[in-house]
Specification:
CATH architecture of the largest domain: Alpha-Beta Complex
Radius of gyration: 20 Å
Distance between the termini: 40 Å
CATH superfamily of the largest domain: Medium-chain alcohol dehydrogenases, catalytic domain
Number of strands: 17
Structural class: alpha/beta
Strand content: 25-35%
Number of helices: 11
C-alpha cells in the first residue's frame, strides 16, 4: 500500500492526526487527478463523528497515520469526469462513509454496497489504486461519482453534513423495520446525542410515539420540548424501567459506551427488536433470558447504501429534518474533538472548512 500513487498530483491543504495522541494539525498532501468516473468537490463543511475520535487515537488498532478524518462532507462540484452524467459543475453534493466497493458482488448488484466485503471507507481505507484514502478535514476531495449524493436545495449545507453519517445510520433501521410508512408504533431511542436526536426527528416525522431512554435526567426537558419526544425514561431508575415493561415495539440503541442490553430488552413487547447502531470498543452485556422469554431479537446496522442515503436526504428535505449543529473553525478541531468525547455538544460539531463569510 502507498499513501499516494504517481497519479496523485494535486496538492491539498488539510488537517491530520499523526500519532495516537489524536492531536490534529495542518497537513499538506496529494490527491489523485480527476478520473473519468470522478467528480472533484470543493469542501464547504465536514461534520465531526464519534468515529473520528476512535480513528485519530487508534482505539481500534487499525489507524494508518497520518490520518485525515471526516466522512460527513458537503461541498460543490468543480470538475466532472467524462463518464459522469448525473452531476454537473456547481452541484451541491455530499460524501459519506463510503469511497469504493467491488461493484461486482451480490451486495453491490442489489444496491447494498455498504455490506460489500471489499468496501473501502472515505478515510483510513485503501482505494482501488492502492492509495490510502483521506477524508473531509481538507479543502478538496476527488470522489467516484457512484459514492456521491445530491444535497437538496432546501437543506443548509452545514446542517446537512452530519446527515451523511448520523442521518443515514438511523434512517436505515427505520426503513429496515418498515417504520417509514406504518405510523402509530411505539419506538424507543437509547441515547440522546448526535445519532439519537436525529432518530427522534425521524420517528416523529413518520408518525410514531417516541420514547427517549437515557442515563441523564437533565436531558428530559430537551428531549420533549425541543425535539418532540413523547416520553422519557431514566435508564438508571429501576422503578421507571419496570413501569415501562413490554411497552415498546422497536428500540434503536445509539450509545457507543459500554452498557448492558438486558434492562433495555425488557422494555420491548413480545417479538420486539433492539437495533444497535452505536459502536462500543468493548463487548456489550447480552443476557439470554430477556430474549428467550420475550422472543425478542437483537440486530445491528451500519451506514446505509448510496441509494438509501440519497433517499434519506430527500426525506429530510420533505420533512424539514436537519441536524442540530455547532459550527467550528478549523483551528477549533481539537477543542471540538475533546468536547465531543465528553458529550459536550448539542448535537453535532460541523467544521467550516471553506471559512467563507
Amino acid at each position: 500500500m502507498a499513501q499516494t500513487t504517481p497519479n496523485h498530483t494535486q496538492t491539498v491543504s488539510g488537517w491530520a492526526a499523526h500519532d495516537s495522541s489524536g492531536t490534529i494539525t495542518p497537513y499538506v498532501f496529494k490527491r489523485r487527478e480527476n478520473g473519468k468516473n470522478d467528480v472533484t468537490i470543493e469542501i464547504l463543511y465536514c461534520g465531526i463523528c464519534h468515529t473520528d475520535i476512535h480513528h485519530v487515537k487508534n482505539d481500534w488498532g487499525i489507524t494508518m497515520y497520518p490520518v485525515v478524518p471526516g466522512h460527513e462532507i458537503t461541498g460543490l462540484i468543480t470538475k466532472v469526469g467524462s463518464d459522469v452524467s448525473k452531476f454537473k459543475i456547481g452541484d451541491r453534493v455530499g460524501v459519506g462513509c463510503l469511497a469504493a466497493s467491488c461493484l461486482k458482488c451480490d451486495f453491490c448488484k442489489q444496491e447494498e454496497e455498504n455490506y460489500c466485503d471489499e468496501i473501502q471507507l472515505t478515510y483510513n481505507g485503501i482505494f482501488w489504486d492502492g492509495s490510502i484514502t483521506y477524508g473531509g478535514y481538507s479543502k478538496m476531495l476527488v470522489a467516484d461519482h457512484r459514492f456521491v449524493v445530491k444535497v437538496p436545495d432546501s437543506l443548509p449545507m452545514d446542517a446537512a453534513a452530519p446527515l451523511l453519517c448520523a442521518g443515514i445510520t438511523v434512517y436505515s433501521p427505520f426503513k429496515d423495520h418498515n417504520l417509514l410508512e406504518s405510523p402509530g408504533k411505539r419506538i424507543g431511542i437509547v441515547g440522546l446525542g448526535g445519532l439519537g436526536h436525529v432518530a427522534i426527528k425521524f420517528g416523529k416525522a413518520f408518525g410514531h410515539h417516541v420514547t427517549v431512554i437515557s442515563t441523564s435526567p437533565s436531558k428530559e426537558k430537551e428531549a420533549k420540548e425541543r425535539l418532540g419526544a413523547d416520553d422519557f425514561i431514566i435508564s438508571t431508575d429501576p422503578e421507571q424501567m419496570k413501569s415501562k415493561f413490554r411497552t415498546l415495539d422497536f428500540i434503536l440503541d445509539t450509545v457507543s459506551a459500554h452498557h448492558s442490553l438486558g434492562p433495555t430488552l425488557e422494555l420491548l413487547k413480545k417479538k420486539g427488536t433492539l437495533m444497535l447502531v452505536g459502536a462500543p470498543d468493548k463487548p456489550l452485556d447480552l443476557p439470554a433470558f430477556p430474549m428467550i422469554f420475550g422472543k425478542r431479537s437483537v440486530k445491528g446496522s451500519m451506514t446505509g447504501s448510496m441509494k438509501e442515503t440519497q433517499e434519506m436526504l430527500d426525506v429530510c428535505a420533505k420533512h424539514n429534518i436537519r441536524c442540530d449543529i455547532e459550527v467550528v473553525k478549523t483551528d477549533q478541531i481539537n477543542e471540538a474533538l475533546d468536547r465531543l468525547a465528553r458529550n459536550d455538544v448539542k448535537y453535532r460539531f460541523v467544521i467550516d472548512i471553506a471559512g467563507k463569510p
